[in-house]
């Protein structure tokens, strides 16, 4: 008990060392009894040896099948076979007999050319005969003949599997949808293939199989059907993972089997051999028992070590991590200090001190930012109001003096009232975008009275329901009148439209003014880029740009480019979220 109280206030290093030594010492006591690396090396060498044997015998099968498939066209093009397949009984019986005997000799030669050929045959439907290498009086089995035709072979491998028999066949003429004139087929010897497979693992008490999952046929060398089903499942797993060769341990009926597999492109099949590990590894079983005992002990050690780390290191560390995540979410909560005088106790105290300092700094910085935003907006309003007020009075006086402009004077007075009512509403720093656009329309209506039909204005696009800083659109339109459209001799054109992409919303103001050059546009871009580093005494683009960035961040604001109308294109980039 005293040791636990001492450990509670000890350093993390001491706690980790105690836990590590507690786990390490029992393992060190049993490592001299086992040599796992040596066991693995022996196992690997035996597995590689069996895999090499599999490669050798499967390669022999591949070569035999490929050789038969390559030489089969030579027998298909036999002149005697072509003649009797075309003329049939039109020739004399003697001539027909002689040609069949000659064909039988060549079929017998083909049969004896490979130990894997059980029988060679030619199917001739015109004479209703299947010519074998030895038998003479035979007839055609229609179902067998239909299975040999290439129209039924819709797969890549050269084999045809029919009635538990394996064939390689070729028809004449080839690649036709019509009934062939004749077919030459080779029936492979399943017993010889089974004998070849048995040489891989039968000496060690194993079972081998050549398995084609696409066509559903297999040739096995063993008798354990249940193990055979487990081997099929294993082949399906390897096919799904596209693994072509290797070796693994297969568990079946409470026993472990060393399983070696190899895929053949020629046969489109897996060769799989399962050998009981007890027959292969023999003396290594003793080391496995020692290893299992060590594993059982290691499990208890791991649980003990995990509990130790969980209680003294992981849980306190995760408490600190969760507290940092809350800070990232602007939740500045203190950590309850339930530790002694170890490192975590110090970290908790330092974290709480940091959080208190952050709260103080955030409150001061937030208040200062709000004050800056309000002063920026009021400075913009104070710059705009006198400038525009003088012009409004001059225009109003001109309209009143004219006998035919009384109605326009009345409309102009209404627009002035709406305009300055919006401007002098000082208690609202942010307003709905719909009101901002409406205020800009009021300003355009006032300018339309001043300029008449000389300047055409269009408002296009939808206005979403969102809140924006005041006076971000009207100053841009005012700049267009002042610097681009007001002094133009041709007709002016002003286009105000919107665009929405996800959470980004943009207002565009384009004109057809011809007074601004590409160099001046680049200079304006540079001034916008540097606007955050200096104070600009202007009521136009830069003030709007700075206020939008204060509200939405540096990724938003104003960008400039050449308009398709020919003048300046101003994009006001906002965020709906």
TrEMBL record:
<keyword id="KW-0597">Phosphoprotein</keyword>
<feature type="transmembrane region" description="Helical">
    <location>
        <begin position="289"/>
        <end position="310"/>
    </location>
</feature>
<keyword id="KW-0808">Transferase</keyword>
<dbReference type="GO" id="GO:0005886">
    <property type="term" value="C:plasma membrane"/>
</dbReference>
<keyword id="KW-0418">Kinase</keyword>
<dbReference type="Pfam" id="PF06580">
    <property type="entry name" value="His_kinase"/>
</dbReference>
<keyword id="KW-0472">Membrane</keyword>
<feature type="transmembrane region" description="Helical">
    <location>
        <begin position="12"/>
        <end position="34"/>
    </location>
</feature>
<keyword id="KW-1133">Transmembrane helix</keyword>
<dbReference type="InterPro" id="IPR003660">
    <property type="entry name" value="HAMP_dom"/>
</dbReference>
<dbReference type="GO" id="GO:0000155">
    <property type="term" value="F:phosphorelay sensor kinase activity"/>
</dbReference>
<dbReference type="InterPro" id="IPR003594">
    <property type="entry name" value="HATPase_dom"/>
</dbReference>
<keyword id="KW-0812">Transmembrane</keyword>
<dbReference type="InterPro" id="IPR010559">
    <property type="entry name" value="Sig_transdc_His_kin_internal"/>
</dbReference>
<dbReference type="InterPro" id="IPR050640">
    <property type="entry name" value="Bact_2-comp_sensor_kinase"/>
</dbReference>
<protein>
    <submittedName>
        <fullName>HAMP domain-containing protein</fullName>
    </submittedName>
</protein>
<dbReference type="Pfam" id="PF02518">
    <property type="entry name" value="HATPase_c"/>
</dbReference>
<dbReference type="InterPro" id="IPR036890">
    <property type="entry name" value="HATPase_C_sf"/>
</dbReference>
<feature type="domain" description="HAMP">
    <location>
        <begin position="311"/>
        <end position="363"/>
    </location>
</feature>
<keyword id="KW-1003">Cell membrane</keyword>
């Amino acid at each position: 008990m005293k040791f636990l109280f001492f450990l509670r206030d000890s350093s993390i290093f001491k706690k980790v060392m105690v836990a590590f030594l507690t786990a390490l010492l029992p393992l060190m006591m049993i490592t001299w009894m086992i040599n796992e690396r040596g066991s693995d090396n022996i196992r690997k060498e035996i597995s590689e040896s069996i895999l090499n044997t599999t490669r050798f015998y499967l390669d022999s099968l591949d070569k035999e099948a490929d050789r038969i498939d390559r030489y089969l066209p030579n027998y298909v093009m036999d002149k005697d076979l072509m003649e009797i397949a075309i003329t049939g009984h039109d020739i004399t019986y003697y001539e027909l007999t002689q040609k069949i005997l000659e064909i039988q000799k060549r079929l017998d030669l083909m049969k004896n050319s490979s130990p894997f050929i059980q029988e060679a045959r030619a199917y001739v439907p015109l004479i209703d005969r299947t010519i074998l290498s030895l038998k003479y009086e035979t007839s055609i089995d229609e179902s067998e003949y239909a299975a040999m035709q290439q129209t039924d072979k819709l797969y890549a491998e050269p084999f045809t599997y029919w009635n538990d028999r394996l064939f390689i066949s070729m028809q004449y003429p080839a690649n036709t949808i019509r009934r062939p004139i004749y077919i030459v087929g080779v029936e492979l010897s399943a017993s010889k293939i089974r004998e070849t497979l048995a040489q891989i693992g039968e000496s060690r008490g194993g079972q081998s199989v050549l398995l084609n999952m696409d066509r559903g046929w297999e040739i096995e060398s063993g008798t354990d059907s249940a193990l055979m089903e487990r081997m099929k499942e294993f082949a399906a797993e390897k096919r799904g993972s596209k693994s072509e060769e290797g070796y693994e341990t297969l568990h079946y009926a409470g026993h472990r089997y060393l399983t070696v597999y190899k895929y053949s492109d020629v046969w489109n099949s897996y060769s799989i051999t399962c050998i009981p590990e007890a027959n292969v590894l023999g003396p290594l079983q003793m080391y496995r028992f020692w290893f299992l005992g060590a594993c059982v002990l290691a499990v208890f050690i791991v649980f003990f070590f995990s509990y130790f780390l969980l209680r003294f290191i992981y849980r306190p560390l995760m408490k600190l991590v969760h507290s940092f995540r809350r800070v990232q979410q602007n939740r500045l909560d203190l950590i309850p200090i339930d530790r002694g005088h170890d490192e975590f106790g110090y970290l908790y105290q330092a974290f709480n001190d940091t959080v208190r300092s952050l709260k103080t700094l955030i409150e001061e910085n937030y208040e200062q930012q709000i004050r800056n935003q309000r002063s920026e907006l009021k400075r913009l309003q104070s710059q705009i109001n006198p400038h525009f007020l003088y012009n409004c009075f001059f225009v109003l006086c001109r309209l009143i003096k004219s006998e035919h402009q009384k109605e326009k004077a009345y409309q102009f007075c209404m627009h002035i009232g709406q305009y300055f009512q919006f401007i002098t509403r000082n208690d609202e720093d942010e307003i709905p975008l719909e009101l901002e656009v409406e205020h800009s329309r009021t300003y355009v209506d006032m300018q339309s009275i001043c300029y008449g039909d000389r300047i055409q204005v269009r408002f296009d696009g939808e206005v979403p329901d969102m809140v924006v800083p005041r006076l971000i659109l009207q100053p841009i339109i005012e700049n267009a009148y002042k610097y681009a459209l007001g002094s133009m001799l041709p007709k002016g054109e002003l286009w105000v439209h919107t665009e929405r992409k996800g959470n980004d919303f943009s207002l565009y103001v384009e004109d057809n003014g011809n007074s601004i050059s590409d160099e001046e546009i680049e200079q304006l871009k540079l001034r916008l880029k540097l606007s955050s580093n200096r104070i600009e005494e202007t009521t136009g683009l830069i003030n709007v740009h700075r206020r939008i960035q204060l509200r939405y961040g540096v990724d938003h604001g104003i960008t400039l480019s050449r308009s398709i109308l020919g003048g300046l294109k101003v994009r006001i980039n906002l965020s709906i979220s």
